[in-house]
Design a protein that fits this description.
By secondary structure, the chain is an alpha+beta fold. It has nine helices and ten strands.
Length: 289
């Protein structure tokens, strides 16, 4: 999925054109003003704010497509409109502008459906509509000790933070930082949350019940916290793995090989306890330092 390159602020000003995003009923998300469009219709403002030190002021405010992607949080339910700027119009470019400018005269040119400009948004939305969460913890027998320990030796504490930072970067690079802002909430809700819920609900009770019977009463609370954190962190990584698979990212990490074994691994009392499908306890190995 290639990142798109859009016109810069200076390029738009040179071309004397700009964009607005509006709700589907043609109302502005800011002023609740409803536009009435016809080809060539001209909109004028008699009190253009000329102060370049003010980022937003009276006038017809236009923006780059990059700015619109960053500013809107629901473009899939909105439209984008292109306006031209007549030669007699004044253009005010704020000195600290991050993509927005204003003018006193604009002329309606055309209206775009969002997916014609940002097809990747529609592509991701379509994938989300057909997404079915899959629990990758499906092992029914104990994995080979040598293979399991080889993977564990490559995985460090708090690895879920490391993995998440890199998965986040990969999403950023693949769909573009601004486009990611448009779809991330949906990906999070439908991929991360559903996978988290499915795995967490299946493994947490079985893991705790198995460990509970093997620890002394006086250290149960301490072990409970340790076990809970280990399970929670691994389920987090599984959810990140689901995002990676959904977004078809190339990024790899040794912890993903653990997920592909279909197991959850817990360290308790110098033992490595391995759990598989439906949270069933598969067996244990001695912890090797």
């Amino acid at each position: 999925m290639k990142k798109q390159k859009f016109e810069t602020l200076d390029e738009l000003i040179t071309k004397r054109k700009g964009y607005k995003y509006l709700n589907n009923d043609r109302t502005s998300p800011y002023q609740n003003y409803q536009y009435s469009f016809r080809k060539g219709k001209v909109f004028k403002c008699d009190n253009l704010n000329p102060n370049i030190e003010e980022d937003c002021g009276s006038g017809w405010n236009l923006a780059t497509l990059d700015w619109i992607l960053k500013d809107s949080n629901n473009l899939l339910t909105q439209i984008i409109v292109e306006f031209s700027i007549p030669k007699e119009a004044y253009i005010i470019k704020p000195i600290n502008s991050d993509g927005k400018f204003r003018t006193d005269i604009i002329k309606y040119e055309r209206k775009f459906k969002i997916d014609t400009i940002f097809p990747q948004l529609k592509e991701i939305q379509n994938k989300l509509e057909s997404f079915v969460p899959i629990n990758p913890i499906i092992a029914e027998k104990l994995p080979q000790k040598k293979k399991l320990l080889s993977i564990l030796n490559q995985v460090r504490n708090q690895v879920w933070n490391q993995v998440w930072d890199q998965v986040w970067d990969q999403v950023w690079d693949q769909v573009g930082d601004q486009v990611r802002n448009q779809v991330w909430d949906q990906v999070w809700d439908q991929v991360w949350d559903q996978v988290w819920d499915q795995v967490w609900n299946q493994v947490r009770n079985q893991v705790w019940n198995q460990v509970w019977d093997q620890v002394w009463d006086q250290v149960r609370n301490q072990v409970r916290n340790q076990v809970s954190n280990q399970v929670r962190n691994q389920v987090r990584v599984i959810s990140y793995f689901a995002v990676k698979e959904f977004m078809e990212l190339d990024y790899e990490h040794p912890v993903f090989d653990l997920i592909r074994l279909g197991v959850i691994v817990i360290y308790v009392s110098e033992k490595i306890k391995i759990f598989g499908k439906d949270g069933i306890f598969l067996g244990e190995y001695d912890k090797e330092n």
